[in-house]
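User: My instructor asked us to take a sequence, write out its structure as tokens, and then describe one feature of it. I'm not sure where to start. Here is the sequence I was given:
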Amino acid sequence: MNLKDLPLFDKIHPEGHRWVLGLGVATIIFFLIGWGWLWKLSLLLGVCVGSFFRNPDRYPPFREGTIVSPADGRILSVTQVDGPELSGIAECTKISIFMSVFNVHVNRAPVAGRVLEIHYKPGKFFSANLDKASEENERNLVVMEDESGRRIAFVQIAGLIARRIVCFVGPEDTLEKGERFGLIRFGSRVDLYLPTSTEIDVSVGQHVKGGETIIGYLPNVD
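Assistant: Let's start with the prediction itself. The structure tokens for your sequence are:
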């Protein structure tokens, strides 16, 4: 039987199944041999890990031209910058989203389109809410082309605790808006790079939901 068929695992991302299962088995063993504090600790850890890997359904808006948030979290900054190295993007608008350990950590495509390139770069593990995390931390760049041929990039960035970036897609894969494309374990950040013509609809400090909150609007292409 697939673990996703069980109610306990139905809304937990498959990346978290072995963690929850392992801690569940440890809890039972510690309980049976009478190690009271250990079974309580492993039970608590199991609940926390299950919460971290929660994988709720999300429903992106149907309105044409909308860009949805690639992650749950808080908007750290909205700035005009040059595109990230290897992205093929010149000047753009950068939206930085900080994901705490309490947020859903499944990442979602901000637009529908085709994956052009993916570039992973090892690095350091500074706190993800610091500006230097964008340039110095371990990160994974995904470059997409939307249905109108515009390039949009987003970068999964590891944080102080996060030590594993997971990306499920590869070049030439197609994604629907709001579709899951990856996750980052245990606290992290996502930077989103958009065309300067984008009408931004979020502000610093705002909390956003991946796959649902509208980040901005792309202009119509004739």
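For the description part of your assignment, you could build on this observation: Confidence is low (pLDDT under 50) at residues 1-9. Try explaining in your own words what that tells you about the chain.
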